[in-house]
């Protein structure tokens, strides 16, 4: 009789645990659906892929079309132009170089680009200031009205040499988001580490983490990234906010006309691997883990409860702190966010411009942090 009673208790406990798990799963799905997947365009011109790291699990969600004309649907392995989500990868490369003693955040950029040693205020800019958007460097390519001309390497360097810092653009004195600063950081990394940015990222981040669907392609003559055939077949069509297709598959947009200056391509599943490593999980080389930790460290205070790290942004307005990065162009919207102390991270990729996936991702993370599974 006692054994039978024990069995009843065990069965009841298991049933209760299963019901609790199922309820938690439903809650997670509801949050992702209501906050993120609901943003998928109603006209079908574009869609959304979500990868959620929660505890030790990876959950994948998708909605909409990778290519409406072909009726090809979004999958977790669809390849997206991730826009400025590329920046944390360059920040990680920099942090690795710092950890290994090959570079220092206080190094002037002219140490690696001697062409700039005869310039003006650009000589005052440090490598760390580029990575934290505190260099003050702003070019016409950074803000509207958007210019129509593209800069080649020689003209970019000439522009930098002629740059003058005014009262509101002093190196190290303020936080001003600048894409031009990361274009300059790319050159610094390539010169300092002796290889093209694509090779550096592949050898030091993608390959060690097993990110087989991520690449920084060279820009072809047709304006598309030179993606390997297997990846090109998974590339999404990008759409404007009004649903008009922009560019061909693998489209890259940049004002800078030399190799490596276009956007990176990746999938929701691959970027989840990068987030997992940044949260200190999975099999990861100690040196890479330490570099990721350094890249996430607050480096410049941007508000009462916010800070800028190396590319990553930190929101400490609620518990736990949120570390994230967003990106977007006129045909793509992207977001990565994580709460390492809660083992919680999310990737949101959308092949349509001007979709606020960043705010949606942040809301989802805040809600999920209070609905643990």
Account of the protein in words:
- The protein is an alpha+beta fold.
- It has a single domain (35-368), classed as 3-Layer(aba) Sandwich (Beta-lactamase), CATH 3.40.710.10.
- 34% of the residues lie in helices and 16% in strands.
- The chain has a 9-stranded antiparallel beta sheet, with helices on both faces. A two-stranded antiparallel sheet has the order 4-5.
- It is globular.
- The model is unreliable at 1-19 (pLDDT under 50).
How many strand units?
A: 11
Order of the strands making up the biggest sheet: 3-2-1-11-10-9-8-7-6
* Element order: H for helix, E for strand: HEEEEHHHHHHEHHEEEEEEH
According to CATH, what is the topology? Answer: Beta-lactamase
Distance N to C terminus: 35 Å
Counting H and I runs of at least 4 residues, what is the number of helices? 10
CATH superfamily: DD-peptidase/beta-lactamase superfamily
Mean pLDDT: 92
Q: What's the shape?
A: globular
* Percent helix: 25-40%
Gyration radius over CA: 22 Å
Main β sheet profile: 9 strands, antiparallel
Q: Beta-strand percentage?
A: 15-25%
Low-confidence stretches: 1-19
Query: What would you say the CATH architecture is?
Result: 3-Layer(aba) Sandwich
Q: What is the C-level CATH assignment?
A: Alpha Beta
Structural class: alpha+beta
**What number of domains?**
1
Secondary structure blueprint with pairings:
Layout: H1 2-35, E1 47-54, E2 57-67, E3 72-73, E4 80-81, H2 87-99, H3 127-131, H4 153-162, H5 179-193, H6 197-209, H7 229-232, E5 265-266, H8 268-278, H9 286-296, E6 300-303, E7 306-308, E8 313-315, E9 322-329, E10 332-339, E11 344-350, H10 357-368
Antiparallel strand pairs: 1-2, 1-11, 2-3, 4-5, 6-7, 7-8, 8-9, 9-10, 10-11
Helix pairs in contact: 1-10, 2-5, 2-6, 2-9
């Amino acid at each position: 009789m006692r054994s039978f009673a024990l069995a009843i208790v065990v069965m009841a406990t298991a049933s209760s645990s299963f019901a609790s798990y199922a309820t938690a799963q439903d809650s997670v799905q509801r949050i992702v659906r209501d906050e993120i997947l609901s943003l998928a365009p109603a006209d079908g011109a574009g869609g959304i892929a979500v990868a959620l790291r929660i505890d030790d699990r990876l959950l994948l969600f998708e909605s909409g079309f990778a290519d409406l004309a072909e009726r090809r649907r979004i999958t977790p392995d669809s390849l997206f132009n991730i826009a400025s989500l590329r920046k944390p990868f360059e920040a990680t490369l920099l942090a690795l170089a710092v950890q290994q003693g090959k570079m220092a955040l206080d190094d002037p950029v002219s140490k690696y680009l001697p062409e700039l040693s005869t310039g003006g205020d650009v000589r005052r800019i440090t490598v760390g200031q580029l990575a934290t958007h505190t260099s003050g460097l702003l070019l016409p390519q950074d803000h509207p009205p958007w210019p129509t001309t593209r800069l080649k390497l020689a003209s970019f360097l000439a522009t930098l040499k002629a740059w003058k810092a005014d009262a509101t653009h002093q190196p190290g004195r303020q936080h001003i988001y600048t894409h031009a600063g990361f274009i300059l950081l790319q050159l610094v990394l390539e010169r300092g580490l002796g290889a093209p940015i694509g090779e550096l990222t592949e050898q030091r981040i993608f390959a060690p983490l097993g990110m087989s669907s991520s690449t920084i392609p060279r820009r072809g003559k047709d304006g598309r990234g030179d993606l390997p055939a297997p990846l090109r077949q998974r590339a999404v069509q990008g759409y404007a906010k009004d649903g008009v297709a922009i560019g061909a598959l693998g489209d890259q947009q940049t004002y800078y006309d030399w190799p490596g200056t276009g956007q990176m391509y990746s999938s929701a599943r691959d970027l989840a691997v990068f987030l997992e490593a940044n949260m200190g999980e999975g099999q990861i080389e100690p040196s890479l883990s330490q570099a990721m930790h350094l890249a996430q460290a607050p480096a410049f205070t941007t508000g009462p409860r916010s800070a800028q790290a190396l590319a990553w942004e930190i929101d400490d307005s609620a518990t736990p702190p949120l570390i994230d990065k967003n990106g977007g162009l006129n045909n793509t919207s992207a977001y990565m966010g994580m709460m390492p102390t809660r083992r919680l991270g999310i990737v949101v990729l959308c092949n349509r411009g001007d979709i606020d996936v960043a705010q949606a991702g942040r809301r989802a993370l805040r809600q999920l942090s209070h609905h643990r599974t």
